[in-house]
Amino acid sequence: MQHANSRWSYLFRLLYLIGQLWPTSKASYVEDNYPASVIEDAHLTTLQLLSKYKYPGELHIVTTEDKYLLQVHRIARPGAKPVLLVHGLEDSSASWIIMGPHSGLGYYLFDAGYDVWMGNARGNRYSRAHVKLNPDTDKAFWSFSWHEIGVYDLPAMIDTVLNKTGYKKLSYFGHSQGTTTFFVMASSRPEYNSKVHVMNALAPAVFMEHVKTPLSGMAINLLKVIGDQYELTRHSYLFYNQCTRSAEAMRLCLFFAWKVIGKNVAELNMTMVPVIFGHFPAGANSKQGQHYLQVLQSNRFCAYNYGTTENQRIYGRATPPDYPLEKITAPVAVYYGQNDYLSTVEDVERLMKRLPNVVLKYKMNKKSNHIDMIWGIHVRSWIQPQILQVLQIWEAGGPQNGTNVTTEYTEQTSYTIETENPFTDTTAQTDATTDI
Ligand SMILES: *[C@@H]1O[C@H](CO)[C@@H](O)[C@H](O)[C@H]1NC(C)=O
Ligand SMILES: *[C@@H]1O[C@H](CO)[C@@H](O)[C@H](O)[C@H]1NC(C)=O
Ligand SMILES: *[C@@H]1O[C@H](CO)[C@@H](O)[C@H](O)[C@H]1NC(C)=O
Ligand SMILES: *[C@@H]1O[C@H](CO)[C@@H](O)[C@H](O)[C@H]1NC(C)=O
């Protein structure tokens, strides 16, 4: 009964959203309810945002070994120590700055004296390019999963940053898929471990046994239909337009978003929601989703499964090999949320047991979800000073004699919102593990 009810509730909400796709007269809801500057931010690119907020943005094009052309966006502080930040699935370099100079990690690290480089994985809006292949007409462009992002894109980005700055090492930040790809790289091409002072894993996505998002069942069926060589949600303003046309539409969009990442109203700046939908989703290949679903279903962190015959040809065995996590020798600092539906506490703790060199386990408060460590309202006072301290310690080669370094920390308090929030979801009492 519970199952049937929630299934109808999803279907109803989905139909409502689809109904909203039909064009109506130009909506003024967003203009009437959000600051002009927020609406502007929703429509600017990463480099335009940097320019608007008077930060020194630079564009660098990185060519991978297999000839993909990637945009890396730099907040340039020549001579300073470099950090490389890599986004999650369907996200982009903008993720590190969209919440604005008073909050974004990209700005924070620049202000703290770093030379900040923000990568874009192949296939998103900024890295839809190749020396020979045309993403609009060549199916072969869309043949990658996050495996190739880890094996080709990250090494190319790291080598470019080190080459352009003259440093021998950098510090790395990954969010979600940005951690998956790092672990693929550092296990498959272990020589890259020595180029990294410390890997900061924000909501790491490796094991997926305990994923709680009820939409994964729907994703499995959807990906079965569309296959693994299909551009998923190419960046456009479709989501922005649909989600900002009325208060009800906004509520529905947030309902679905929270079903995927875990709900935490207290850390989401409601004024900034249009900016999020202006930048997210930023584009990806369906094979990235497919590969995650294989990890989820096989309960192994392993290479892509092409089926027995192809596996034999590619891997010389019937099943795809596991990524050898024991080869990841770079120090890893892990930040994870207790209400994250994708990177659950159980799965992150399983990962930490397997990694040889975890230097910090930072468990965020009970309400924190998949994105709070980047977009949360309180990141500047809460987590960013901790991040900075970890960077400084590991850039200096690890804790020096006699220093007392925290290696395990659990946040005890979480914020609650005092006033009734217009977007509080009172109708959605569905069980988080209910499938659709
Ligand atoms: C960067 O790469 C170029 C071309 O390969 C090379 O000539 C140069 O020495 C490199 N610079 C540094 C700092 O490694
Ligand atoms: C929310 O975002 C608005 C617009 O950028 C900003 O003015 C405000 O300070 C933010 N609120 C919090 C609590 O950070
Ligand atoms: C202090 O550091 C030196 C060199 O880094 C090392 O040889 C020595 O064992 C350290 N002492 C302690 C007590 O850890
Ligand atoms: C390190 O700090 C913790 C917490 O502040 C304290 O409990 C512990 O005794 C300290 N250890 C040393 C060796 O100073």
Automatic annotation (TrEMBL):
Residues 1-27 form the signal peptide. Residues 81-376 form the AB hydrolase-1 domain. It holds the Pfam family Abhydrolase_1. The active site is at S176 (nucleophile), D340 (charge relay system), H370 (charge relay system). GO terms for molecular function: hydrolase activity, acting on ester bonds. GO terms for biological process: lipid catabolic process. Gene3D superfamilies: alpha/beta hydrolase. It comes from the Eukaryota. Keywords: Glycoprotein, Hydrolase, Lipid degradation, Lipid metabolism, Signal. Belongs to the AB hydrolase superfamily. Lipase family. This is Lipase.
